[in-house]
Amino acid sequence: MHPASDRSYSRRDTVLFVACLALSVAALFSPEQWTVAFAGGLRATVLRPFVWLQERAEEGKTSRARLRAVTAERDSAAYVAQFLPSLTAENERLRHTLGLSRRLTAPYVPAEVLHQAQVTDARMLLLSVGRSSGVSTFDPIVAPEGLVGVVWSVGPATSVAMTWAHPEFRVSAFTENGSAYGIVAPSASATGSDAFLELRGVPYRDSVATGTVVLSSGLGGVYPKGIPIGTVVGVESEQAGWERVYRVRPAANPGSISHVLVLTAPPHGSVADAFPPDSAEPTPRLDSLPAPRVRPGPPSGRKAAAGSAPAASQTSPAATPSPAAIPAPTPVRIPAPAPPPPPKDSGR
């Protein structure tokens, strides 16, 4: 029984093989129009499910590839965006530093600030220049905003700078309008991020308005004249009849700078032209303002004249009318006394 079934299967396979061979030969030698139409019919009927599966597989493969590309682009954009604000700020600072170097007439050495992760990072800074670059101790350090500090110690290739936040920092200073002189030092009561300076030794009679810019005076032989130090924000303390101590907001922040300029020449002359004014003209002192002139009121004998010009008597002192606008009083004519009668003749 088994051999018969095997012969039937073999005969069926032979028939199918011969049929496929005949169809292949017919398709090979048939006209091109017939083969194209026959292939299209097969794709539209018998092979349609397989064609649909192939299309879905290609779309899935393309979608996965596109998803991976979009994900990579998004990750790259997010990575670059994380550093964009810092790069923009650093680029802006470098532009300001380059502008300051072009405006400076005194010799200088550009330096990079190598920040250290220490508590005293805002007080002492490590610079990338040293003795080989011509830097020496007590050379002033400036930034585009103003004074940063002074060189404390010098090595062959690096140097240590003392900023204005150091307790031993001192600089002779004066106000922008030249009304007061004093010594600028760090405040002992400042803690944390609330760091500010103090303008000490200002005489009690010299008042400094809020918003006045404080500059280095050039006295002492260390700092040249005209470097911005900060802006007066108020009175810190005062001793009646002796002196006032003013609170000064620093112009430069040592904790955020990355590049500075070290002035290597002795402080001769002024460098105020290299630092453009960042604030408006300071408010004038109250004791230097002229006293207002007050016009006295008319006397009681001229009430009629004052009543004829009520607008002139109600004018404020700031808008006092000119003397020509005030009407003159009307003169009063007094009649002369009558002559005495002639004497009578008693003889008649």
Describe the structure.
With 348 residues, the protein is an alpha+beta fold. The protein has five helices and twelve strands. The strands form two sheets. It has a six-stranded antiparallel barrel. It has a six-stranded antiparallel barrel with strand order 6-7-8-11-10-9. Strand 3 (140-142) and strand 4 (147-154) form a beta hairpin.
Provide the helix percentage.
Answer: 25-40%
What is the helix tally? 5
Number of β-strand runs: 12
Task: Provide the succession of SSEs.
Answer: HHHEEEEEEEEEEEEHH
> Which geometry do the CA atoms define?
rod-shaped
Radius of gyration: 49 Å
**N-to-C span:** 211 Å
Question: What strand order characterises the main sheet?
Answer: 1-2-5-4-3-12
Enumerate the spans where pLDDT stays under 50 for 5 or more consecutive residues: 279-294, 296-329
Major sheet summary line = 6 strands, antiparallel, barrel
Helix/strand-derived class?
alpha+beta
Average pLDDT taken over every residue? 76
How much of the polypeptide forms β-strand, as a percent range? 15-25%
